[in-house]
Amino acid sequence: MLTNVCMQMNDPHPRYFVCSLATQAVRQMVAYYNKALAPMGLTAQQVMALGVLWQEEGLSLGGFARRAGMRKASAVTMIQRLERMGLVTRTPDPEDARLNVLNLTPKAIDLAPDVLAMGTILEQSVERAVGKEDMAAMIRGLAVIRDLDI
Fold it and tell me: How far is residue 40's CA from residue 110's CA, in Å, rounded to a whole number?
């Protein structure tokens, strides 16, 4: 139907509908993560936030927000939730009293191996489905799209 509408308008239409396809793929992956993480009491969004801190602790809230690709207000909400879950602490920055630094608790550190193993299983499943070369191309393409200044 859309093709007919676009043809009637004599306007070119998107060739791939990338946004729709990407959204559907992300929903599929998030659903997998949420299902696998449910026994641990975590969601995919919480794990993505923890992943930032697993890579680099001691970030300010602003630094965390930038690395997580979140707005600062969303980052505050996420960190508050992770604090209530006993996974993250905020402590004053010893070099700048106006800032807090974010650190993982032992509970969060203990969760990392299981969460990372689950992520590996998902990546392996996707790689088996699309093949190693297409997986590598997809990762390169996603990184380029993520970094676009649009």
Answer: 11
End-to-end CA distance of the chain: 30
119 residue type, one letter: G
Task: Flag whether 60 is in a domain.
Answer: yes
pTM of the complete model: 0.80
- Is residue 42 within 8 Å of residue 111, measured between CB atoms? yes
Per-residue pLDDT tens for 51-99? 999 999 899 999 999 999 999 999 999 999 999 999 999 998 888 888 8
User: Residue range 145-149: average pLDDT?
Assistant: 87
Total count of domains within the chain: 1
Kind of pairing between the strands at 96-104 and 88-93? antiparallel
CA dist., res. 50 & res. 64, Å (int): 10
Residues β-bridged to residue 100: 92
Domain CATH code at residue 91: 1.10.10.10
Residue 89 in domain: yes
Give domain status of residue 98, yes or no.
Answer: yes
Backbone dihedral region of 91: left (phi > 0), alpha (psi from -120 to 50 degrees) or beta?
beta
Examine residue 135 and state whether it is found in any structural domain, yes or no.
yes
- Look up residue 52 and give its amino acid: V
